[in-house]
Amino acid sequence: MKKLFLSLVAAIVAATATYAQSTLVATLTHGETIKMYTGSNALFNAHNAAVSGDIINLSGGTFNATTITKGITIRGTGIDEPHPTVLSSSNFWINIPEDDPNPFSMEGVRYYNIGNYSDGVVLYNAKNPTFIKCQINKFSSSSSSNFENATFINCKIDQITGVSSCSANFINCFIRSGEVGFKSSFVNCILRSSSYSYGKAQFINCIIEGTTTINSSNKGFNCVQVASSEKNIFTSTGTFVDCSTTTYSTLFKDYTGTYSDDQTFELTDEAKTTFLGADGTQVGLYGGMLPYNSTPSYPRITKFDVAKKATADGKLSVDIEVSAAQ
Predict the structure, then answer these.
(1) Burial class of 2 by CB neighbour count within 10 A (0 to 12, 13 to 18, 19+)
(2) Which of these, 190, 255, 249, 256, lies nearest to 224 by C-alpha position?
(3) How far, rounded to the nearest angstrom, does the alpha carbon of residue 250 sit from its chain's CA centroid?
(4) Angle at the Cα of 224 from the Cα atoms of 221 and 225, rounded to 5 degrees
(5) How far apart are CA 283 and CA 172, in angstroms?
(6) Neighbours of 173 (CB within 10 A)
(7) Distances from the Cα of 47 to the Cαs of 10, 26, 64, 145, in angstroms?
(8) Which residue among 62, 63, 177, 317 is least crowded, i.e. fewest CB within 10 A of its CB?
(9) What whole-number distance in Å separates Cα of residue 35 and Cα of residue 50?
(10) pLDDT per residue as tens, the chain (326 positions)
(11) For residue 291, which of 315, 318, 313, 272 has the smallest C-alpha distance?
């Protein structure tokens, strides 16, 4: 109960900035202590003051990203909110020492690279980092990276590159294009690519768009290929079991291959019962154990109304609504 109370306090503090939309706020929670930082460098300052295991809540607005060197948790307002949390810089490095006892986690945040597009979110050193309900324009790793078991859940990623020797798992994610290595797995994902190859990866209950280049060592189970051409990637290379091909109009309600932020990727009613994964649920984002939902899992302020003036006895009316994903 105390942890929930502290989370609500942090959310309320951040909400004052969310609704004003003129102040950027980062609240740092350390045990029962909460500190607040403001301005575009608020994340940088909160990170400097944090220790491993701390939580940083960010208001809506655009913050300067920073290199993460501690096993902390970063929470935003959600990627599909009217005033989302956005991190922006030339790069966003995650470089956490091996002896750090806590994993890095980030949820409900958009990241847009405004500098060199070859950088993006760069995982350098980290054990078990987790990205949940985030939108990332590019995710990469360097040739000397040493991260293990990176997990992406309910994320939208524009491009993946350089993940050739480190392990990563993508669950109920949309990925526009990518190049990944032999330790990667994709479960209930939508993968759209015509110029990048997925080498030595495993696909389960996925929708693969276009004529993606598939490495001969790939494995796929209960996947569906959707494309305007008739090329069947499942019969030409790799090891695929119970996979099939279909058209956009048969599979999706309104998605035709052109991405937009408001696209839901919802299947047609018939496709939901026709194209099933190994677990009996629909293939793609809304099947499996973690169906896609962009609403953050932690408490957020969705309504924050304060009366313009106090009553005659000095009381001020405050109306607050809190919500979180189920």
Answers:
(1) exposed
(2) 190
(3) 28
(4) 125
(5) 10
(6) 26
(7) 16, 10, 12, 22
(8) 317
(9) 10
(10) 445 444 555 555 544 444 444 578 999 999 889 999 999 999 999 999 999 999 999 999 999 999 999 999 999 999 998 889 999 876 788 889 889 999 999 999 999 765 444 556 777 777 889 999 999 988 877 666 667 788 999 999 988 876 556 678 899 999 887 766 557 889 999 988 644 455 567 889 999 887 555 566 677 889 898 876 555 555 555 577 778 888 899 999 999 888 888 889 999 999 999 999 989 999 999 999 999 999 998 876 655 566 677 777 767 676 655 566 65
(11) 272
Place of tokens 């949309």: 174
CB 284 within 8 A of CB 276: no
Contacts of 3 (CB under 8 A, 6+ apart): none
Number of other residues whose CB lies within 10 A of the CB of residue 78 = 23
Report in angstroms the alpha-carbon separations of 291 from 9, 153, 168, 191, 286: 29, 9, 19, 16, 4
**Taking a C-beta distance cutoff of 8 angstroms, is the pair 294, 80 a contact?**
yes
Using CA of residue 102, residue 48, residue 39, residue 304, what is the dihedral sign? positive
Q: Which two tokens stand for residue 297?
A: 């899992």
SS3 for 232-250 is: CHHHHCCEEECCEEECHHH
Instruction: Bin 138: left if φ > 0, else alpha if -120 < ψ < 50, else beta.
Output: beta
CA angle, residues 193, 196, 198, in degrees to nearest 5: 90
Under a CB-based contact definition with an 8 Å cutoff, are residues 260 and 283 in contact? no
